[in-house]
Write a structure and sequence with these properties.
Layout: E1 3-4, E2 10-11, E3 13-17, H1 43-55, E4 60-64, H2 74-79, E5 86-91, H3 100-105, E6 110-114, H4 120-127, H5 131-146, E7 153-158, H6 166-176, E8 179-184, H7 197-207, E9 210-213, E10 220-224, E11 227-232, H8 238-242, E12 246-249, E13 254-256, E14 266-267, H9 273-285
Parallel strand pairs: 3-4, 3-12, 4-5, 5-6, 6-7, 7-8, 8-11
Antiparallel strand pairs: 1-2, 9-10, 10-11, 12-13, 13-14
The structure holds S-adenosylmethionine.
S-adenosylmethionine binds near residues 67, 91 and 185.
Length: about 300
């Protein structure tokens, strides 16, 4: 059984915010599209929605937040999930060093670590964290690699403030055996801090030995001098939306068809397993590409 939306897009992944709490204060944070989150989902609700999704063809789950490592029961959640799922996490990395091996033992396959800069001053300006926090992130990356949570992806949101550091981050990722993800800033509040990702991507194109396009969001991967760089450019990108395979779950237990919309949420509430499956179908039926290709408009109703 599979989940397919009215635009013919298969849903194969869940992106679940397990908390809205965070220990960092990133200046650009989109809070995964949550505006005023209510009570955090229980462990049981998280496990049930993943299992219900798995019954409907979900193959991968990414845990996010807030900062997902603020939840001390994440390992308990992972331990209860079906073994065939691909399980990943996106984290700011500050709490990772002490948890990497327990997360791996509980079934986590890989993770993304947010790392916008290697410069402590810029790190502090962007995240509010200290040099000590940045050192902890570095330690976290090494612990994750030692625990086999690979490939590690480093998430760099490209800002005016850090765009000159892209080459340094590419080199760092290569040394760490990680993949660098360059992410376009989603500037919801019009803070105007976005960097020039278009030109950076043009430069990558020129320098790459090989370019591969992933199915998911039609993201492009650039291979250069032994480094791997993926570019995530969602804004005004109809290809991104047309190839989106994800359904989101908010920290307070709502199915969320799109990061950029809050008018089509489906509340899980006290639904049991079978009801949760119906709700997943309902949320899938409410999916609509935010940036819509004109060739798909006939389906827009
Ligand atoms: N705290 C965790 C972390 O740092 O990965 C998980 C939550 S954070 C919202 C998830 C990812 O979203 C991070 O990699 C972050 O850089 C990215 N992100 C947050 N706000 C963004 C924005 N306005 N535009 C693009 N990416 C953003």
């Amino acid at each position: 059984m599979t989940l397919v939306d009215p635009f013919g897009r298969k849903v194969t992944g869940l992106r679940i915010a397990i908390t809205s709490r965070c220990n960092m204060r990133c200046i650009y944070c989109h809070h995964e599209g949550e505006t005023s989150p209510g009570e955090e989902m229980s462990k049981e609700t998280v496990v049930q929605v993943v299992k219900a999704g798995a019954d409907l063809g979900i193959k991968s789950v990414k845990f996010t937040g807030g900062e997902p490592l603020m939840r001390s029961d994440l390992e308990d959640i992972l331990n209860e999930l079906p073994g065939h799922l691909s399980l990943s996490l996106t984290t700011n990395g500050t709490l990772l060093a002490g948890r990497a091996s327990s997360l791996a033992e509980a079934g986590l396959d890989r993770l993304n670590v947010s790392l916008d800069t290697l410069n402590p001053r810029i790190y502090s300006e962007i995240t509010g964290g200290t040099k000590k926090d940045l050192d902890r992130v570095m330690e976290g990356i090494r612990s994750a690699r030692d625990a086999g949570l690979t490939p590690i992806k480093l998430n760099m949101v490209v800002l005016r403030e850090n765009q000159d550091e892209v080459d340094e981050l590419i080199e760092f990722a290569k040394e760490e055996g990680a993949i660098l993800q360059l992410i376009e800033l989603l500037d919801l509040e019009g803070i105007g801090l976005g960097g020039d990702l278009l030109n950076i991507e043009k430069d990558l194109e020129r320098r790459s030995d090989r370019i591969v396009t992933r199915h998911m969001h039609r993201r492009r991967k650039y291979f250069l001098d032994g480094a791997e760089v993926e570019v995530v450019r969602p804004i005004d990108n109809t290809e991104f939306c047309a190839n989106c395979t994800r359904l989101r779950v908010t920290s307070d237990g709502k199915l969320k068809p799109c990061l950029l919309r809050n008018d089509n949420l489906v509340e899980i509430g006290s639904a049991d397993f079978e009801e949760t499956k119906l709700l997943l179908r309902e949320a899938t039926a409410r999916r609509k590409p935010y940036f819509l290709k004109s060739s798909l408009l006939k389906n827009d109703g």
